[in-house]
Specification:
Keywords: Hydrolase, Membrane, Metalloprotease, Protease, Transmembrane, Transmembrane helix, Zinc
Number of strands: 12
Number of domains: 2
Low-confidence stretches: 197-201
Largest sheet: 4 strands, antiparallel
Order of helices and strands: HEEHEEHEEHEHEEEEEHHHHH
Distance between the termini: 25 Å
Number of helices: 10
Organism: bioreactor metagenome
Radius of gyration: 26 Å
EC number: 3.4.24.-
Helix content: 40-55%
Strand content: 15-25%
Mean pLDDT: 88
GO biological process, one term: proteolysis
GO molecular function: metalloendopeptidase activity
């Protein structure tokens, strides 16, 4: 329990704090005044002043905040600061940079975490090993069996599952010459033995077969049905960790970060399109459960989850909802394009609508979290 609490505080608090640090760094870099930069919320436990800024450690350690001079009222200039340091009186492009720096900091943090993972643990690559075969499908008819590893297709080496899948889907239904390796394995070998041998592959019996992909329906990660050329196999889940040097790890981390950003953005789009049902929306309770679980399973999984949550936090804040950074970015862009700020009354109405929308989303997420907990406890039937 204590491990879970510490992990939740460090991960969630750290991600929100890093977000605010982005705002702080760019604001100070542009010469804007910051009256307070706090780690945590609520009553201040410790505080000290450096220059004009008060740095504080507050009671509730989840996140932090930055108090920019003139952010809420251009005329509210604390003692010691000048109007030149007021956030609200700065050009729109400068305010846009400050606002956008928070989400950008979350993406940067995710990259640093992925870089650390690639350097310390390596990047996982899903091997082209067959875990299951669809009955009467092309692979089954060609004699492919669970445990086989696809070595090449039409003479081109296959390094991972994605490369193999791409070669099959891009075949346009043409016959493929497939070379596979079949390990010399006792019939009673269990799944763990297969996974271990996949991670440390040995050259088994080399078999060459020909098969013709069939046009079939499959489901995407979001549950949508799509038509594709398939041969009727499932992966075994076996992976290999690819080790990297310092610079290569940075590049690999950037690639993983880009993939997570793309997937997260698609998730928001699919949610808006109702492809992903609303009951899949999770909130703080689900996040805490996930963090607690990963904290007990190992540091690598916890860092990977922290990177994913950081990206979600960054992209969520970029949504064009007025109370979020994305909404403020829209206001700044309006001012830059039309050379005047949006009408104050319209901004006020938009802010109220944004607050109402966020409250509704939080209530939905919390309801979903509680409903999942109740289902899993068996109060309302099986959770399976």
């Amino acid at each position: 329990m204590l491990t879970t609490i510490i992990a939740v505080v460090v991960v969630l608090g750290g991600l929100i704090f890093f977000h605010e640090l982005g705002h702080f760094a760019v604001a100070r870099g542009l010469g804007m005044g910051v009256s307070t930069f706090s780690l945590g919320f609520g009553p201040k436990i410790l505080k000290y002043r450096k220059g004009k800024t008060e740095y504080a450690l507050s009671l509730v350690p989840l996140g932090g905040y930055v108090a920019l001079v003139g952010e809420s009222d251009p005329k509210d200039i604390p003692e010691g600061f000048t109007e030149k340091e007021s956030f609200a009186l700065r050009p729109a492009w400068q305010r846009l940079l400050v606002v956008a720096a928070g989400p950008a900091a979350n993406i940067l943090l995710a990259w640093l975490l992925c870089w650390t993972l690639a350097l310390g643990w390596g990047t996982p690559v899903l091997l082209p090993q067959v875990g299951g075969v669809v009955q009467n499908g092309p692979a089954d008819k060609a004699g492919i069996q669970p445990g086989d590893t696809i070595v090449s297709i039409n003479g081109a080496a296959v390094a991972n599952w994605q490369a193999m899948a791409d070669a099959i889907t891009q075949s346009n239904g043409k016959t493929l010459a497939v070379t596979l390796s079949r390990p010399d394995m006792a019939p009673q070998a269990d799944d763990q033995t297969r996974a271990d041998e996949a991670a440390q592959p040995e050259q088994g019996m080399i078999i060459s077969v020909e098969l013709t992909p069939e046009r079939s329906i499959r489901k995407t990660i979001f549950g949508e049905e799509e038509s594709a050329w398939l041969i009727g196999i499932r992966n075994s889940g076996a992976v290999r960790l690819v080790q990297h040097g310092f610079a290569d790890a940075a590049i690999a981390g950037a690639g993983q970060t880009a993939d997570m950003v793309s997937l997260t953005w698609q998730s928001f789009v699919k949610l808006a399109e109702r492809v992903v049902p609303l009951d899949q929306v999770g909130g703080p309770i689900m996040i805490m459960q996930m963090v607690g679980k990963q904290a007990h399973e190992g540091l690598a999984g916890l860092l990977a989850l922290a990177a994913l949550i950081s990206i979600n936090l960054g992209i969520l804040n970029l949504l064009p909802i007025p109370v979020l950074d994305g909404g403020q970015i829209v206001f700044c862009l309006w001012e830059i394009i039309f050379r005047r700020p949006l009408n104050a009354r319209l901004q006020d109405y938009a802010m109220r609508a944004g607050i109402a929308l966020l409250v509704a989303l939080m209530l939905l997420a919390t309801y979903n979290d509680l409903w999942r907990i109740l289902k899993n406890t068996g109060w309302f039937g099986s959770g399976s």
